[in-house]
Amino acid sequence: MTRRRPPYASVLAERLADAGGYQRWAGTSADGQHVTIWVAIGHGAWTWARERLDRMLCTLCPPADDPSGYDWRCLAGHAPVCVIRCGDVSDDRVHALAAALLRDGVARVLDVLTGDLHIVEVAA
Exposure string (b/e) for 49-65, b if CB count within 10 Å is 16 or more? Predict the structure, then answer.
C-alpha cells in the first residue's frame, strides 16, 4: 500500500529544496542552515497551518486521519520536528505521530506542549 504525503508536503518540499533560501522562514537558525519544521495536529490543525503557511515551514496531520497512514519522508533530515497541538489532543495521538515521523527518517520530534523529545533508538 502506498502512503500519501501529508497536506502541504509539496509546498514544504519545494521550500526545503531551495538551498540557501531558509532565512525567510520563521524558526530558521541564525546561520540560515537549520530550519524548524512544524507539524500541527488536532481539530484546529488545518486553520493553524493555513494561517502560517506563508511564513513558516509546516504541514499537518488531519484530525480524523491515522498518522501512520502518511509518508513523512519529506521531513527526514530536519530535526527536531516540532509538533504543535491544536485543540484537545491526547498524548497517545502525539506519540502515534512521533512514531510515524521517526519511522520515516526524522531523528528527533519535539512535543511543544510537554517538552517531550522523541528520538530514534539506536541498538548498542
Answer: beeebeebbbbbbbbee
